[in-house]
Fold each of these.
Amino acid sequence: MTAINRVLATTDLSAPARHAAERAARLAAEIGAQLDLIHVIGRTPLDKLRQLVTPQSAEVEQRVVELATTEVEELAETLRLHHGLSAGVKVVSGPLLGEIAAQAEAHDAGLIVLGARGASFMRHALLGSTAERLVSRASRPMLVVKQPAHESYRSLLVPVDFSVSSLRALALARSVAPRARLVLLHAFEVPFEGRLQFAGVDESTIHHYRIAARQEAVRQMHALREAAGLPLHEVQFKVLHGDAMQHILEQEQEEDCDLIVMGKHGESLLEDLMLGSVTRHVLSQSQADVLVSV
């Protein structure tokens, strides 16, 4: 299990971001990690302010920074009262994604936490959420928070494809929620199943292939569990035939999971280049929080 010593929570001071900060604080307190809060003031609004070239521009800009700093410090104090830990506070200006990545490196953060929605919802809906854009370029694990942090994570859904990425996801899951229930999910399909059906291969033969594919997946599930060092009684297996995206969202509800833990990278180069179509879909469609390993 890889220890997380520092948690970096990003906030735009919106309500969803405050949920994320609360979750980050709860989690940091539970695992004994340092918490840092960062707020990024977008460069574009400041540039527009500077372009006004009025005598008050510099003074107003400084006031914007001071006000943001005060709000983040007030949030840090609220978290201290709720969770009993002191958070570092940092307010910077610049490109959002670049500054978050830079601060994560500067603080050597083991986990970045942010809300699934921010203040600029319409812009994010058109261009892709900050969470999706940041995850696509992240070199550190990220927790995307969707729900208020009323309690510790109780049940984790971990979709696996038996790649090295699956091992990393399991290690991260245990680091973040060491006492939570683990549900390992693998969705399988027979190679070229659609083509076999199109070619007229009888359903009994295809069914036989499905049975064999499922048996192999179960074998690999046990091998993955052993490689991850997880006791059998701590893990529940789900091996299901069909579309992975659909099964993940269904099992999230059926198993009442409050956190989905996924690898950023899949088995194929195409998935790596596109963040992973399954990961991206879950980020946008799930109700539970999503933890992405790298």
Amino acid sequence: MTTDAPTRSATPWRTVALGACALATAMGIGRFVFTPILPLMEDQAGLSAQSAAALATANYVGYLVGAVIGTVAPAAMRSRSVYRLSLVLLVAAVALMAVTTNVPAWEVLRGVAGIASAVVFVATFTTVLSDLRGHADHLVGWTIGGVGAGIALSGLLVAVVRVVADWTVAWWASAALAALLASVAWMLPVGGDPAPDAAAAGRPRRRTRPWFMALFVSYSLEGVGYIIAGTFLVAAVQQNTSGAVGAWTWIVVGLAALPSCALWTMLIRRWSRPTLLLAALVVQAVGIALPALVAGTVTAVVAAVLFGATFLAVATISLPIGTQLGFARSIAVLTVGYSVGQILGPIVAAPLLGGGYRPALLLGAIVVAAAALAAAALRVRFPHEPAG
């Protein structure tokens, strides 16, 4: 596969805007719009909790396939044609969810959406790291905040649609929003690998494998824990509150996520990335556990803020650590571990769903706490200088 030569962005903020739209499409909608639509599908399309878990798993299997493509065929992640095709497939997979009530067909569509999401995510993140090298760290944070924007926009859209229409219209409307964002993301200058850090040139390579393994374990466990909340949070809140609290909770998640990555990366001036990773995981574990332990609207809002403020931040902090440690294709490798975790999340949570969603959230909080322990190990004698 040949690499399409891109034209680099004229300004860093153009890269931020295009990358944010790409991630809003791929992750905020392609990945996460299923969360606010899930209660509608349960009420109106007869979707069971076990089938919901199966659809979630299909999406995460697809995401794993896309991440593996990034490790075995890295040229695909540098191809503008592959990137754009993935955007098209993503929009189509979202739209076609409305034309059937066949669970196996839904599983295929969610799988396709997962593959496309992973390709767009890895291609976008790699491009953004390259284009924004040498600029302030918070610019990358604002780019990842595009996921939060996508979550908030799609969540608001679904909250409005549920008042006047049914679950099919929710999928159609989400596809229209994805198409609009994708039309902007179309111009992202996807291209070559990030340029090597000039400051690290000539330095002897450190033996960084132990730290990378700790990072890999932490990020993979995060994949298990966060996805349980990311899939079932709205349904869990809705199960224990009245009205449309669940749907509005997801909007709060998106609004909290939007500035979170930029705010966390600004803290790098004072604390190291491993320290910030540990802090983000601890806060996230608390946020996931809250609605599992205490019912009520206030608790749901607090939990949504804590979860939204951390789940994207973990990715924003973790992926540059892999690059700093000097591992080739570290973004794709870490994404593979994250993807495997996402597949395992709904599977290990499924046996707990018979008693409602709250036990599953508690399990998610425990797993994220384990990820925090791995992050704590990462901090021990961490090689803060970039690997040469």
